[in-house]
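Here is one chain, start to finish.
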Amino acid sequence: MKINLLTVCTDAYPIEYAVKTARRFKQLTDFDVNMFCVTDRPQELYDKQGETPIVPITSPQNVTGWWNKIYCYSNDMPEGWNVYLDLDIVMVKNFDEEIRHAISKNKKIACVSDAIMWKGNKFSSSMQVFKTGEMVDVWEKFQSDRAVHQQFDGGDQVWTGKFLTDTGQAKKVLYLDEKFPKLKMNLKFHLGEKVFGQWQFPQKISPKIKMVDCGGRPKPHDLQELEYIKKNWHNI
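Its structure:
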């Protein structure tokens, strides 16, 4: 089965993050996968394709940062099933089973619950599975007044979660962690602890964990001392 991997690499993110994400996903999956990246630097991505061809999709004007994730819901994306991943997710193991489960349920969108229910919002945009066209109403609502919507407190995932709730579509969201609790664990809020104001992280993690989400700070490039980050990100 053919699927698409979608990423967004804009603003301060180095293109290398998009390349590593695509390369690691390709290494792990048994799907026939095409790689796409929404970016404000398409030429830079072409220059660094290497052995992992990634098709750049130029980000729309006047859409900044994480708001470009909502552009991934537009009909400008490739046809078929999409797996979207944030660039600060470190993939540890194959998670094709979870992707297949999401596809088989054929919901509007599948994701993993937000680690801290930020601003009372369960929906998380860090890892998503959806079919092109299914979420186009979210994109259309967003672009109806981009300038105003981009001021929404909480960013793209809180805005999207609120949209799904307000339109009565919240029940169409499949939360993969309810069946697969170890699919994606947040480095700070699931695995780490704060000691005297400083985050401390485990040197080893459960073999059942398939992805480690390094949202916020520190980012993967700052975490070479953790073997599971070094092996699955630095050495990719």
